[in-house]
Amino acid sequence: MKRVLLILLMVCLAILATQFVSCKKDNSKDQIEGRNRKGRPTNELVVSMGAMIPHEFEPRNRYGMYNEAHITHSTLLRRTADLEIVGDLAKSYTISPDGLIWTFDLHDHFKFSNGEPVTANDVKFTYEMLIEDGRHWSLDFVSRIEIPEKNRIVFILNEPCSTFASSQLVEVPIVPEAYYDDNYKFNPIGSGPYMVAEYQPGEQAIFVVNPYWHGEEPYFKKWTWVLLDENAAIAALQSGDVDVVYASPELADKPINGCTLFDIPANDVRGLSLPYVREGVITDSPDGYKVGNNITSDPILRKAMNIGVDRQRVVDVALNGHGRPAYSVIDNMPFWNPEAMIKDNDVQEAMRVLDEGGWLVGPDGIRVKNGVRAEFDLYYATSDLLRTNVAIEAANQLKKLGIKANLVGSNWDEMMKKSHEVALLYAGGRHNPNPFFISHHPSTAGRGWTNVTFYNNPKVTEYIEKAMSSADLDEAIRYWKLAQWDGETGCSVRGDLPYLWLVSINHTYVGDSRIDVGNQGIHSHGHDWSLIANIAEWTWKGDK
Description:
It is a single chain. This protein is α+β, with helices and mostly antiparallel strands. The protein has a domain at 269-505: Roll (Dipeptide-binding Protein, domain 3), CATH 3.10.105.10. The protein contains 13 helices and 24 strands. It has helices at 2-15, 29-33, 120-133, 168-171, 230-239, 299-308, 311-318, 347-356, 385-400, 412-418, 434-440, 458-469, 473-484; strands at 44-48, 77-79, 85-87, 90-95, 101-106, 142-149, 152-157, 194-200, 204-209, 222-226, 244-246, 259-264, 269-273, 323-325, 360-361, 367-369, 372-373, 375-381, 404-410, 423-428, 499-505, 507-512, 515-516, 539-540. The strands form six sheets. The protein has a seven-stranded mixed beta sheet, with helices on one face. A six-stranded mixed beta sheet has the order 14-21-13-20-18-19. The chain is globular.
């Protein structure tokens, strides 16, 4: 508490400062040495990635889904910065020819932060606990888990699941069966390079090196995540109380003495969800919410929007240039199909498509077809400035095509209830094909934030199911690509995509120029944990 009060005091003083000293990425030695770190040793850090700890170290609350679990826990497999899947707790594994039996041989020298060994029983317990919980981890395809001998564990599946390796096996953090309970998040015990020494919700989390860590000892022996909102965090960075902060694209270029910008590409996509069916077609949504929109369900309008928008302008205007145009939720991933790409910002072609489709410009500039205006509501979360900026720019561009998107500032609870009947400023993107599956397979429609558009293309569904059930991972990739575009159809900008994906944001952070954040690779959706996911590899360049 004293640390937080001190930081808040310094934040208030920093906010009163009237001028920042400019700092470029090639800071001089004098500039760097002049940065005040309040006496912290070089092997200690303070960071602020947001005002809350997402998922709070609790696997049942999705802790691990965005690669953060490797800070504090081991997983069976792990993903490298280059997106290669390699062993972690598992030193080797095999998959049966039919894809139903996955066998893992485990290392015998991994230990939890309390000194006890990580065993196959802990792995079995973790997965069975998440299967029983059933809220966030899709593990229904697992029939049973067996331990045929010490340090060996076998997963028997009901059906092949090609994404098992690229999702749950690299994400699920292994917890100790003997010490897991409902209060686990307040005292998490894992076998990663760091352990949580203290967690005070709403204030801070303190991490120290796990004394039983089996790998190379991290350079930073202690680091603290102080829970501050963005403006307070940036002020604390300027005052020297914090070393690295998340800064949204709106504030990322603000110069701070002795600091540099970490501008990391990410598969973190923003765009519009566009309900795929007309009103009244579906009356039995699993979540009970109304389904359908008579405007966004028109494939001509969706096609014209995808062709006519200038995605690079959205990047420049809404993201201050910190991002790139996006055309799908899996751009540039190993299972992405570049043949599904189109040329955007082609206003003339978009106009031609609309004219030929019967959408003609009305007296007020808004297009009309059979007496119906090309007009729909676009909801966005007012709590998210980035999404707000993207929504505003998207609406401005669509109006130039003769399509009116009525902006509606909202909150997540209301947006959930409206998600199947209005357009949302939507988000997605991870390192595996699961976001593609849950966005386009009809079985996931009306079940939370998955397939909110009620997309249903039988040919695409066929490809997706073949991809998911393939025992050959290379064959699975071929089907993922066909689902996007097979030359005639697909859920892509060349097909009948139920989204208007616009941008993939870069994750932007500002921090002390002497910190080397290692090989970051491309980030996944969610900025909070992304930069620090490999903090065990960070070093202090000032000592070299």
